[in-house]
Design goal:
This protein is 26% helix and 25% strand. The protein is of the alpha+beta class.
C-alpha cells in the first residue's frame, strides 16, 4: 500500500535552517509557519492485546512511561539527536506549531500498550514523504502492531493523509485536498473494519461512514477505531483521563530538515 504512493524517496540534502534558526537566534526561531493552527502530524502504534469493541480498554490506562518515550524518540527516522528532554505535560497542553522553534519539538506518549507520537517532521503533502517512510520503518520494526498515521495541514485548503496498517498485511491509505474530489486511495476499509471487529453501522455512528463518497469520509476516524476501539468506553482516545506526554527538543536529520522546510515554509 505505501509502495503505491506516487513519487520516490525523500531527497537527502543539507540542513536548511530549521535547526540553526531555532537554536541560534530568536529572529529565525520566531518565524511563523505557513500552515494554520491545527496543522499536525501524528503517528500511533497499538500493541497486543488490542481493544475489544464495547469493552473497557484497560491496558492504555497505565501511567505515561517517560523512559520508554525517550527510547521511542531516539529511534525515529526524523531525529538525528535528542538535545533536551523537557518536563512532561498533559497531551492537551502540547500546542501545534506556530513558529519555527516549535518544529524542533516532539511529543511522545507511552501508555501501556499504546505509543502516540506528535512530530511536525512527519507533516507535509503529496510532495513530501516523511510519514510514508516512518510508517514503513515502524512496520519493519514492529510487525505485530497496529500502526496509524494521520496528517492535517491547513494551507487555506487542507491536505489530509491517513494510513492504517494492521498485522498480517491489511492496510488502507487515503490522501488528498479537501477542495478536490480526486484523492489517492489504496486498500479496502471494509477489510480493516472486519479485522478490528467493528461493523459498518457501528463505524458510521463513530464517524467513519462507508456509505459516503470516499473523498468525503473522515479517514482519520478509521484510524481512531483501529487504535482505540469504539467510543464511549473507559480509556478511549489519546486525550482521555488527562494523559501525559514527554516532550523532546531534537536535532533533525538532513532529509527531515529539507522536507520540513518545504512543508512548513514552502510556497
Amino acid at each position: 500500500m505505501q509502495e503505491e504512493r506516487p513519487g520516490g524517496d525523500p531527497e537527502t540534502g543539507i540542513r536548511n535552517g530549521i535547526e540553526n534558526g531555532t537554536r541560534n537566534g530568536a529572529g529565525n526561531g520566531s518565524q511563523e509557519v505557513r500552515p494554520k493552527m491545527g496543522s499536525h502530524a501524528v503517528l500511533a502504534l497499538r500493541f497486543p492485546p488490542f481493544p475489544v469493541p464495547g469493552e473497557a480498554d484497560e491496558p492504555v490506562m497505565a501511567p505515561h512511561d517517560s523512559v520508554r518515550a525517550r527510547q521511542v524518540v531516539e529511534e525515529l527516522g526524523t531525529v538525528e539527536e535528542v538535545l533536551e528532554q523537557l518536563p512532561d505535560r498533559l497531551i492537551a497542553d502540547f500546542r501545534d506549531p506556530e513558529v519555527r522553534a516549535d518544529l524542533d519539538l516532539v511529543a511522545i506518549g507511552c501508555w501501556g500498550n499504546a505509543v502516540h507520537i506528535t512530530d511536525p517532521a512527519l507533516g507535509g503533502d503529496f510532495l513530501t514523504y516523511a510519514m510514508t517512510e516512518e510508517v514503513r520503518r515502524q512496520r519493519a520494526r514492529h510487525p505485530e502492531a497496529r500502526i496509524v498515521g494521520s496528517i492535517e495541514m491547513d494551507y487555506g485548503n487542507s491536505f489530509l493523509e491517513d494510513v492504517v496498517v494492521l498485522p498480517g498485511g491489511v492496510e488502507v491509505y487515503a490522501a488528498g485536498w479537501d477542495c478536490d474530489d480526486e484523492w489517492d486511495f489504496a486498500g479496502d476499509p471494509e477489510e480493516v473494519l472486519r479485522a478490528i471487529g467493528i461493523g459498518r453501522e457501528a463505524a458510521a455512528e463513530a464517524g467513519f461512514d462507508l456509505d459516503e463518497d470516499p473523498c468525503d469520509r473522515v479517514w482519520s476516524d478509521l484510524g481512531i477505531l483501529a487504535l482505540w476501539g469504539l467510543p464511549g468506553g473507559l480509556g478511549v482516545g489519546p486525550g482521555a483521563g488527562g494523559r501525559r506526554v514527554s516532550v523532546f527538543r531534537v536535532r533533525r536529520t538532513s532529509s527531515a530538515a529539507s522536507e520540513m522546510e518545504e512543508a512548513w515554509f514552502g510556497d
